[in-house]
Amino acid sequence: MATATTQSPKREAFGSRNVFILSAIGSAVGLGNIWRFPYVAYEGGGGAFLIPYLCALLTAGIPLLFFDYAIGHRFRGSAPLAFRRMHHRAEPLGWWQVLICVIIAVYYAVIIAWAAMYTWFSAQLTWGPGNENDFFFIDFLRSADVAEVGVSTEFVPQVGLPLVAVWLIVIVIMALGVKRGIGRANMILMPLLTVMFAILVVQSLFLPGAMDGLNAFFTPNWEALGDPAVWASAYGHIFFSLSVAFGIMVTYSSYLKRKTDLTGSGLVVAFANSGFEILAGIGVFAALGFMAQAQGTEVAGVASSGIGLAFIAFPTIVSQATGGSIIGVLFFGALVFAGITSLISILEVIVAALQDKLGWARVRTTLTVSIPLAIVSLALFSTTTALSVLDTADAFVNAFGIMAVALVAVIVVAWLLHKLPTLVDHLDRRSSFRVGRVWMLLVGALAPLVLGYLLVTELISKISEPYGGYPGWFLAVFGWGMVIALVALALLLSALPWSGRSHAKDDPEYDEFLAKEDYEPDAETASIATVPTSEPRITEKGADA
After folding, report:
1. Tell me, what's the pLDDT at 205?
2. Residues 66-95: tens digit of each pLDDT
3. CA–CA separation, 137 vs 128, rounded Å?
4. Contact residues for 348 (Cβ-Cβ < 8 A; gap 6+)
5. Bridge partners of 383?
6. Contacting residues for 63 by C-beta, under 8 A, at least 6 apart
7. Please, which of 46, 256, 310, 475 could form a disulfide with 260 given CB 3.0 to 4.6 Å?
8. Which residues of 401-434 are buried (b: 16+ CB within 10 A; e: fewer)?
């Protein structure tokens, strides 16, 4: 046997706990906070929705956030490596999360590109008054007719060129690493995002009709609390809002120093995220109140969410409001910053996983990951059929990707591997307050029930009628086919051997971590962490004999 060893690259780390917190908030605060939460709250009973929202936050969102933190920090790795160190058969869960991030990264970048272009359009009111709908779908996206749903090769330059710019920016940030790239980007972008959105909210509050919008947003409909769908909506939203089960928080927490307050950091992230959502609701509905008054209609007639709110309703507000260009620049600029901080966290899941598996340097891994994703992103989303592909992929990866892997992960970790005592012990060692058995009950019992209900509901909805009215073959490729491919590829990637340079093969930092914490590593953990780097691969038991 060879005596030489190959050292794996030293694991990166955030410069401080504050940088981690800002980065975690940057990941959680994304497009959904701005364009989804206000409408979900409005539809769910207005002010009364805050009750199921807070219940969901406290009983599911924060416990699952701690779940990810505990796995990442205790097992010190990207999602695949952390799950593998927990148990060798759990590795596919990590790759499943990585592949979900691959899908999301490909289409998330184009929404940032749209927002960047609309920041420029807002300054000039390019779309023209009363033409906001046609401008977005016809002039800007050049969307194909519903009858022509498919994959077009017709390039749309006003989408493709800013999309290239978005990818170049995030590639540079990712190549600089965790501390100099991701950390510094969030230290700059998150304060800017907060200031910009605060100014936007203040300006919106002084628009005529703003109080009508706020009344519509906050007036409680107490009857809604008796509707199970409203509670399901609250749990579903909080689950996606905090970026749990993406592999993001597992990866980010693995970059924390050994002595870090995990639960205290988690509470800051969770409540900062919720605070931003409520702030977004105030700003958005104040602006919608103005829009309703200008059009002589009720707020209910103009309230919307998602792409319709961002790229049709807000341009209408920009056209009609005094100083509307400033509102547009602030709103779409905030979307760009929120999108970039979320996108780099999504990409980091993929980069970290390949670094751990292959033992490559940071720049090499970043380019290997980002360039192919950028090419696929350009091929699919800078064409006339981009919107239908994006809509389908987003709907299915959220329902049957993220939600499904979260459910499976909780069941596997809690009920099959019985690792919750290990995780709760780690959280209690490293936290400002103990979570104890209450946390175990919420993660091991309540979370599977809630996630199972949400998943079954989505499954029934998607099966009962074709999603979006799209053709069956289209849904089979970009919907159901993609969901099946995620699981199949996760199993395949788990079967591939780990490199001799991998962190899984010989990681003195991890051995030192276990020693300092006085842990007794599991059999699988110990066998992975102490394999000599000269051995060619890891077997099911952790190493070749």
Report:
1. 96
2. 999 999 999 999 999 999 999 999 999 999
3. 14
4. 174, 178, 182, 248, 251, 252
5. 155
6. 435, 439, 442, 443, 446, 447
7. 256
8. bbbbbbbbbbbbbbeebebbebbbebbbebbeee
